Amino acid sequence: MCKPGAVTLSTGWGDIRIDVADDGVVGCTLPHLNEIPSTHFSVISAGDDAFSIYVRELLEGGNPTRPAIGQLQGTEFQKKVWAGLLAIPHGTTLSYASLAKKIGRPTAIRATASACGRNPVPLIIPCHRVVASDGGLGGFSGGLAWKRLLLGIEQSRRP
DNA sequence: TGCAGTCTCGGCT
DNA sequence: AGCCGAGACTGCA
Fold first, then answer.
1. CB-based burial of residue A55 (10 Å sphere; 0-12 exposed, 13-18 middle, 19+ buried)?
2. pLDDT value, residue A155
3. What nucleotide is nearest A140 when CA is compared to C1'?
4. Does position A11 have pLDDT exceeding 60, yes or no?
5. Strand C bases with any atom < 7 A from protein Cβ
6. Cα A7 to Cα A50, A51, A52, A150, A158, distances in angstroms
7. Looking at the C1' of nucleotide C7, which residue has the nearest alpha carbon?
8. How much is the CA Rg of chain A, to the nearest whole Å?
9. Which of A37, A64, A69, A95 has its CA 20 to 30 A from that of A80?
10. Considering only CA atoms, which residue is closest to the C1' of nucleotide B7?
């Protein structure tokens, strides 16, 4: 794996910070966006590590191979939810209810949503692919603008 | 549109 | 240790 520490990816939308441990990514901090940027995505500076490359390709519309994820801090329930998130294919979305059912807790919907919100590595674990059943977006750490952006990027790439 | 049901987590007492 | 409120939700009335 890459060296432990923090990696910063500077983009036209702000700096994305990625925290890396011995065994993989353990944290990812997005710049807060209040609205979708009018400018096209652009990279100002980035490392050549697997994580920076992954994030860059993802935001450029590609479907890069997910980098290794380290040991995340969380309860068993949260880890189960995150594992369920990783199973969502690129370019598709799932409702919180479907996700709850998927992990074997069909009625623990709000709890599932809370676990999504506690996801320490947005982008890597695709919590933006989870939306409300009524078509609403739900929420997203770092701002809803990110969620709309990511969904837009992924879906525009879908055949 | 409104409200009760359902489950977890974190902060307080 | 136990209680209470809040949360990125749902489904029915």
1. buried
2. 86
3. C8
4. yes
5. 6-11
6. 11, 8, 8, 21, 30
7. A114
8. 15
9. A64
10. A108
